[in-house]
Design brief:
heterotrimer; A alpha/beta; B mainly alpha; C alpha+beta; A: alpha/beta; D-Maltodextrin-Binding Protein, domain 2; 2 domains; ten-stranded mixed sheet; 18 helices; B: mainly alpha; MetI-like fold; two-stranded antiparallel sheet; 14 helices; 2 strands; flat
Chain lengths: 402, 322, 361
């Protein structure tokens, strides 16, 4: 009896829903940004106001498994209409398989820079498959209160950074919150520290094949970077992402290396912090930047035109402004002005930036540069291998990649 | 006087017999069909498709051309891939041997103790079995917190009892990560073999143990000479299940380490290797269904063959009681 | 070859008293049978002697030395279990030699003892077999063999024949008796089967509710039961009991009235202990009842069952006063169901029990 009633209820409600949808085009929009659900729903509402015939449903999947979920669904013909894509290698995997609609002639991409478009362009055909949405910046967070309380000046050069770290350590404060338990946080950290040591030209040299990762600049950068482990928490080998965030938020550690995506969280936590590039020997250091992802259209979508309409919307200034205001992102599309001083600062750092090396250039083949670097750094920081050995492993791995 | 002739009765009897037989067949079919269908859909079909996938070249998610055993050659013999395969396999072997000794050894000791029905043994029985019913995800996450080098209970406790030297970042060091996970697995699962062993011990007639006691055997001799050989069927089950479990080990290293067997592949297993090869990951790169399928087929063949050999061998030393 | 002395033995499981103040002496080379209804405590008493159960209070001595604090293996005893308790994973040889191996005897000595015992029990051909491949009787012999090789001072048997079929049981009974003679050992044998008790025992110990009711040689118990329980328990079919009332006393006899108003005089040593009007029971064995012949007392009744075995006949009847009576007669008697017959007995053959069960005569 009960089952019958339930079934009947289901049938009736299904009828009601399908009846309601029949008048509008229903679009599914998949993403990995679970923390942004509210903001995206607001943005979608703004879009639907001008497009009453289109209804967009935003679904956020678990971040670390998003690629797998997405590709599996696409392979099974069950993908969404609008796809929040990742960039570079991850984009290529989806685009190369033909799951994405090329956008070049269908969407006005003039508001985007060539650097940003590179992240959503398939290397094989040179076509753009997604509208870049935001760039991320790897940088250093400092807890101003902790520095003040321990009478340590915020460092402006590499030597000052070391001295400040020593002073904080002597005062019983963990200088740097980061740990090595999660490989990807190690890669992030290397993105903040290593470019200052290997220099601005290294990225161009290594991507063009002029040199490889056994280059003395890279080995030296690894060595200098590994000094930082003295300033990481006791037992940093077991400190994962959640723990390091907690250490910084709780005021147990004075500095934190992370991405610009941490800004909203730390702001909300009420920490009196500042952001800066890791200082170089001479002074102002470089930050590493990368395109976070983009918005693409499922090539097999039955509502391609409606989906493209939404994608065109994402390439406009109003969308970029909402992205900036609601999500605190550094929007890829030009013309958005941030009222947030921190975001303004981030944008300023882009004047002295270098691509986040492994993601931007070496995540297209297996083994990826990221995998090699992450595990190499874990080996370096846990003392299993020397800088030279790690550099050789990375170099060999990249060369063997296909 | 008789209402039906013998012939009539024979006919009626045969008819009812036929009907009963048909009913029986129908009933059997009804009971067998669902499991057979489940087996077909969820075991044979995926197996067959894995074999099929493994002989093609895959470009991401698109099936390329037939390449025969190419994928198998790649995962087995290409230097980097074979290093991964061997490293993961080695870890699985370590896990199996450790679980056999630590988890099942502990279970045997616990079962022998509980079988003597010490005061409150029912309470202990429940306590030991309780973790088994918890989900692996919860346990992995919980223990990851317990083992946190800074906030974790384990290191807090060690520092409290002045064992600061031992307050290590257990999951962060290549030397201790796998061992820690094996211990967590033991904590999670030890109740299961304990219960199986306990049931096996309870099945041994009390007379046999008393006879051995009268024959002069002490507790150790009784355990070794009488209880151990007579619980052989339970040991077979546990060894085979531990073997299969060890070589399919995935959840604990995935949750407590990472898809890459963090730190530095020291907790990598065949399961993790298969998953990231087949499906890829954010940092490890794209998916390769071909190589992944080849790995899956190899893992399956290995587990299947060895399970059969182990079962055959262990069953041969079982004795029927009475 | 042991003399066993049990003093004031008590055993309690929680609040349940299973053995109550047992005192017993067993002589060297004696074959003693503990008999009693199930749950009477006879097996517990055996297990207390073996050491498999701890006593609550009292002493057990073998050859004058207390053994009740020793572990089972140190008491110099061997036990044969009802289930035989053969180790299923060991061959007959391994089963029989296990105790010796545990005791770390030399291989040669073990081999000699096992072969010897196997010879005695005709197990030589079966030494390599597993228990599973043996018949019930063979398993029984292996169990005994396992006891023999240890050369114990005392053998304990816990209902060892109850799992065998009737024919084999008779055979094993004789074999065990022979074995007892051959081994010259003290044996304690527990059974609920009074035929086994009667046929095998030198001495029977009748136990009820954890108390020893009577100790004695089989025929002594049969002919002179100490109380109504023993009288009823020993002998098959059971003794007949007939309700009577004391209606008169003389110097050395009581005048009793049966329910059918027949009066009889039964000699009694201590007439003063009984009063006129006391209710008593006369006990008379089935074979002492006499059919259709003038006797000291007669009972009329209707036959409701007859068992004819050719050489003997059992007649079951209801008396007019509603007692059930069994009569055992030699040969074939021409009696059938529904017949009205009259049976009687002689005063000399009857037992008299007071209302508390104690024997009067």
């Amino acid at each position: 009896m009960k089952i019958n009633k339930l079934l009947m209820g289901a049938v009736i409600s299904a009828g009601v829903f399908s009846g309601g949808i029949a008048s509008a085009t229903d679009l599914n929009f998949w993403s990995w940004r679970q923390e942004d659900i509210k903001a995206y729903e607001e943005i979608i509402a703004a879009f639907e106001e001008t497009h009453p015939d289109i209804h967009v449903t935003y679904t956020a999947h678990e971040a670390t498994n998003y690629n797998t979920i997405l590709t599996t669904a696409l392979a099974g013909g069950a993908g969404p209409d609008i796809i929040h894509t990742r960039s570079y290698g991850s984009l290529e995997q989806v685009a190369a398989a033909g799951y994405l609609e090329p956008l070049n002639d269908q969407v006005d991409l003039s508001t985007l820079s060539a650097d940003e478009l590179l992240g959503t362009t398939l290397r094989a055909d040179g076509k753009v498959y997604a509208v870049p949405f935001a760039s991320q910046t790897v940088l250093l967070y400092v807890n101003k209160d902790l520095f003040d309380a321990n009478k340590v000046a915020i460092p402006t050069t590499w030597n000052e950074f070391i001295a400040a770290s020593e002073a904080l350590k002597a005062a019983g404060v963990t200088p740097l919150a980061n740990g090595s338990a999660a490989g990807w946080t190690m890669e992030i950290m290397s993105g903040a520290f290593m470019p200052n040591f290997y220099g601005k030209e290294f990225f161009g040299d290594v991507t063009s094949g002029k040199t490889d990762f056994e280059d003395a600049r890279f080995v030296e950068a690894l060595e200098k970077f590994s000094v930082v482990k003295d300033y990481m928490p006791d037992g940093f080998e077991g400190v994962d992402y959640a723990t390091m965030q907690q250490l910084f938020i709780a005021g147990q550690a004075a500095m934190f290396v992370g991405g610009s995506w941490e800004l909203p969280g730390f702001t909300k936590a009420g920490i009196n912090f500042d952001i800066m590039p890791v200082p170089s020997a001479a002074g102002s250091g470089m930050v590493a930047t990368f395109l976070d992802g983009g918005y693409g259209v499922n090539a097999a979508s039955e509502n391609k035109e409606a989906a493209l309409e939404f994608i065109r919307f994402t390439a406009t200034q109003p969308f970029a402004q909402m992205l900036t205001d609601k999500l605190g992102n550094v929007a890829a599309v030009d013309g958005a002005v941030s009222s947030d001083p921190m975001l303004k600062k981030v944008a300023g750092f882009h004047n002295n930036a270098t691509p986040y090396i492994m993601l931007v250039a070496f995540r297209f083949d297996t083994p990826t540069g990221s995998t090699l670097l992450q595990n190499g750094l874990q080996e370096l920081f846990t003392g299993k291998k020397t800088a030279a050995e790690v550099a050789k492993d990375i170099s060999d791995g990249i060369k063997a990649a296909e | 006087m008789s209402l039906a002739s013998d012939h009539d009765i024979d006919l009626i009897y045969q008819k009812s017999l036929r009907k009963r037989k048909n009913m029986r067949r129908l009933w059997l079919a009804f009971l067998l069909l669902p499991p057979i269908l489940m087996l077909l859909i969820f075991v044979f079909l995926p197996m067959a498709s894995a074999v099929l996938y493994s002989v093609y070249d895959w470009k991401g998610l698109v099936r390329g051309e037939f390449i025969g055993l190419g994928n198998y050659y790649d995962v087995l013999f290409k230097p980097r891939e074979s290093w991964f395969l061997f490293n993961a396999f080695k870890n699985n072997v370590v896990v199996f041997i450790s679980l056999m000794i630590v988890q099942n050894g502990l279970a045997l000791v616990l079962a022998l103790l509980l079988a003597r029905k010490p005061a409150g043994y029912r309470f202990y029985q429940v306590v030991i079995f309780l973790p088994v019913i918890l989900s692996t995800v919860i346990i992995g996450f919980q223990w990851k917190l317990f083992l946190n080098p800074i906030f974790g209970l384990v290191n807090k406790f060690l520092r409290m009892v002045d064992l600061d030297m031992w307050a290590l970042p257990w999951l962060g060091l290549p030397e201790t990560a796998l061992g820690s996970m094996i211990l967590v697995n033991t904590w999670h699962w030890v109740g299961f073999p304990t219960l199986v062993f306990l049931a096996a011990i309870h099945r041994i007639p009390k007379d046999l143990i008393e006879a051995a006691r009268l024959d002069g055997a002490n507790e150790w001799r009784i355990a070794r000479d009488i209880i151990w050989p007579l619980m052989a069927p339970a040991v077979t089950i546990i060894v085979v299940l531990t073997f299969i479990g060890s070589f399919n080990w995935f959840e604990i290293p995935f949750i407590m380490g990472s898809l890459e067997g963090s730190p530095a592949y020291s907790t990598d297993t065949l399961g993790l290797l298969f998953y990231r090869t087949a499906f890829g990951s954010v940092s490890a790169g794209g998916s390769n269904f071909g190589a992944g399928s080849a790995l899956a087929v190899l893992i399956f063949i290995f587990i299947f063959t060895f399970s059969i050999i182990v079962t055959k061998y262990l069953t041969s030393r079982e004795i029927e009681m009475g | 070859m042991a003399h066993i002395q049990i003093n004031n033995l008590h055993k309690q499981f929680g609040d349940v008293k299973v053995i109550r103040d047992v005192n017993l002496t067993i002589d060297d080379n004696e074959f003693v049978v503990f008999v009693g209804p199930s749950g009477c405590g006879k097996s517990t008493l055996l297990r207390l002697i073996s050491g498999l159960e701890d006593l609550s209070s009292g002493h057990i001595k073998i050859d004058g030395e207390r053994i009740d604090h020793l572990p089972p293996s140190k008491r110099g005893i061997a036990m044969v279990f009802q289930s035989y308790a053969l180790y299923p994973h060991m061959s007959v040889y391994q089963n029989m030699s296990y105790a010796l191996r545990v005791a770390k005897e030399s291989k040669a000595s073990i081999d000699k003892k096992v072969k010897q015992a196997a010879e005695v029990l005709q197990l030589t051909e079966l030494l390599d077999r597993k228990p599973k491949a043996l018949s019930g009787g063979q398993r029984q012999r292996v169990a005994i063999g396992r006891a023999i090789v240890r050369d114990p001072k005392l053998f304990l048997f816990d209902e060892p024949l109850s799992n065998l079929d009737a024919k084999l049981r008779v055979q094993m009974r004789i074999e065990l008796t022979k074995l007892h003679k051959k081994l010259n050992a003290t044996m304690i044998y527990v059974t609920h089967d009074q035929v086994e008790a009667m046929t095998m025992a030198d001495k029977i110990v009748v136990i009820r509710d954890g108390i020893i009711e009577q100790v004695g040689a089989p025929l002594e118990l049969y002919n002179h039961p100490a109380n109504q329980f023993v009288a009823g328990f020993i002998g098959s079919p059971s003794m007949n009991f007939i309700d009577v009332k004391v209606i008169g006393k003389s110097d050395a006899s009581l005048e009793l009235e049966l329910k059918n108003k027949t009066n009889i005089h039964i000699p009694c040593a201590e007439v003063d202990l009984h009063a006129i009007g006391d209710k008593m029971q006369i006990g008379i064995r089935p074979e002492k009842l006499i059919l259709d012949e003038a006797c000291d007392a007669m009972q009329d009744g209707e036959v409701f069952a007859v068992e004819r075995l050719g050489n003997e006949t059992y007649i079951y009847m209801h008396t007019a006063t509603n007692n059930e009576i069994v009569l055992h007669a030699a040969g074939d008697k021409p009696v059938t169901e529904g017949d009205h017959i009259s049976v009687g007995f002689k005063v000399a053959d009857c037992h008299l029990f007071a209302s508390n069960g104690e024997v009067v005569k």
